[in-house]
Amino acid sequence: MAQEAAKAQTAQNWTPDSWRSKEALQLPNYPDQAKVKETEDIIRQMPPLVFAGEARRLKAHLAKVANGEAFLLQGGDCAESFAEFNAVKIRDTFRVLLQMSVAMTYGGSIPVVKMGRMAGQFAKPRSADMETIDGVTLPSYRGDIINSLEFTEEARIPSPKRMLRAYNQSAATLNLLRAFAKGGYADLHKISKWTLEFTENTAQAKRYDEISERITDALNFMEACGITGDQMPEVIRETEFYTCHEALLLPYEEALVRTDSITGEYYDCSAHFVWIGARTNQAQNAQVEFVRGIKNPLGLKVPPTMSPDDLIELIYTLSPENEAGRLTLIARMGAGNVEEKLAPLVRRVKDEGRKVAWVCDPMHGNVETAESGYKTRRFENILSEVNEFFDVHKAEGTHAGGVHLEMTGQDVTECTGGLYGIKDEDLSNRYHTHCDPRLNASQALELAFLIADRLKENKK
Ligand code: PEP
Ligand code: CO
Questions:
Q1: C-alpha distances in angstroms, 433 versus 32, 76, 96, 440?
Q2: Ligand 1: residues within 6 Å at CB?
């Protein structure tokens, strides 16, 4: 039934603006609609940020993830910000992702698909429309693309002009990421240079050094055999790096839809991959309506409240042709919940023969408020959720396809635990996130080694 209904809907009755006739949750109430229209028109004239061919290539990689032949690493800020926009931040997140991917590729003998929550991850869904501090109530912060974090009446008014700044920042970020990926920074010969100073002298830094020595030996061996310069395969000299964000702010996303000149199909050219968040996953609502018509590979967050029937309906709506690579399910159940909540969903998807990649977001089900009042996550819970995720897939005979993380290359103190043993009272030292607490570089690398061990075990 659900399948027939979805088929009838797909492609037909879809236009880049068909979401406008649906109920839309989590969108800002802009006071000046004429300004919104003006801004959309400007963005519609701008060059696309990504090329459709790149999104198709990513989709092919994600098909491998769905088949258990590759592993997906998605990571970056919860919310990018205008204030913390600089080359060092971009480079540091990029290099931790490179380090993590080396740890996993080496340990797990599996290719890693790298995707940054970067160059467009600005809009935030919120649980409450209003926020109260010291008796003053104002509209919630919804991400720098919408309003400002500053707690004043003026700052919290949504402004469409912010979409232009987000577009420009995304373009500049993407430009640098492409340069890093293809221009020599990601060359495996530089592997020992990716280490971040503040992660030195830890157990995982030592483990990373060992790997980098072995890889360097292998490269030296290749060179001694005469494979040098341009003969060195491209995969050694450069990497592929993709971008993703939540498809939340539909006026912006719609304004970046382009028709691919090669296939005539629609792509949302704001990023290679976009996902549907846990608060806007209603099959009949605007966000789902929007993404079902674009050809980008898609993500769908799967919270513990989602029933198997609802998930199946969404899968038929978002991936009616059942092509591997089209849809990645990002489970965010919370530590201790995975067996109970995820296993029935995995089983049902398998029984229905749906081709999806399963990825674990161990962040969003593990948020808590520390005694100090800071929103935090315990590293041990993050590790547990990832372990439980691997256990469920092992038991069900399906593939643990990847992880989706909120992390940064900076030395922040936002999540407690990890090898440095960040405590509740340390959170205030370097708590910089604009939204949810992120893993710092050392915690992220520690997690990557745990994943590498689990991937290795799966190979046996
Ligand atoms: C997020 O990824 O930042 C987010 C808000 O996640 P979720 O929709 O799963 O709560
Ligand atoms: Co978040």
A1: 30, 11, 17, 11
A2: 78, 125, 277-279, 301, 332, 364, 436
Q: pLDDT of 60-105, one tens digit each?
A: 999 999 999 999 999 999 999 999 999 999 999 999 999 999 999 9
Ligand 2 centre to CA of 362 (Å) is: 11
Tokens of 23: 């109920």
Give the residue among 163, 171, 172 at the shortest CA–CA distance from 42. 163
The count of domains in the chain is 1
Residue 231 lies in a domain: no
Domain of residue 57 covers 2-186+238-459
CA 328 to centroid of ligand 1, rounded, Å: 15
pTM for this entry: 0.95
**Token reading at 200:** 């030195």
**How far, in Å, CA of 158 to CA of 230, rounded?**
51
Nearest CA to ligand 1 atom 10: 278
Question: Is 204 within the bounds of a domain?
Answer: no
| C-alpha of residue 302 to centroid of ligand 1, in Å | 10
Q: In b/e form, how buried is each residue of 81-108, taking b as 16+ CB within 10 angstroms?
A: beeeeeeebbbbbbbbbbbbbbbbbbbb
Tell me the two tokens of residue 260: 């691919």
17 with 293: CB under 8 angstroms?
Answer: no
Residue 210 lies in a domain: no
Ligand nearest to the CA of 280: 1
Ligand 2 center to 331 CA (angstroms) = 13
How many C-beta neighbours within 10 Å does residue 79 have?
25
- The answer to the question of residue 205 being in a domain is no
Is the predicted pLDDT of residue 258 greater than 80, yes or no? yes
273-311 as b/e: b if 16+ CB within 10 A: bbbbbbbbbbbebbbbbbbbbbbbbbbbbbbbebeeebb
Is residue 385 a contact partner of residue 360, using CB atoms and an 8 Å limit? yes
- Tokens for 118? 């970067």
302 SS3 class:
strand
Structural contact between residues 273 and 297, judged by C-beta atoms closer than 8 angstroms: yes
> pLDDT grade, residue 159 (50/70/90)?
very high
Is 235's pLDDT higher than 90? no
The CATH number for 283's domain is 3.20.20.70
**Residue 8 pLDDT:** 42
- Residue 324: both structure tokens together: 């591997």
Q: How confident is the model at residue 198 (pLDDT cuts 50, 70, 90)?
A: low
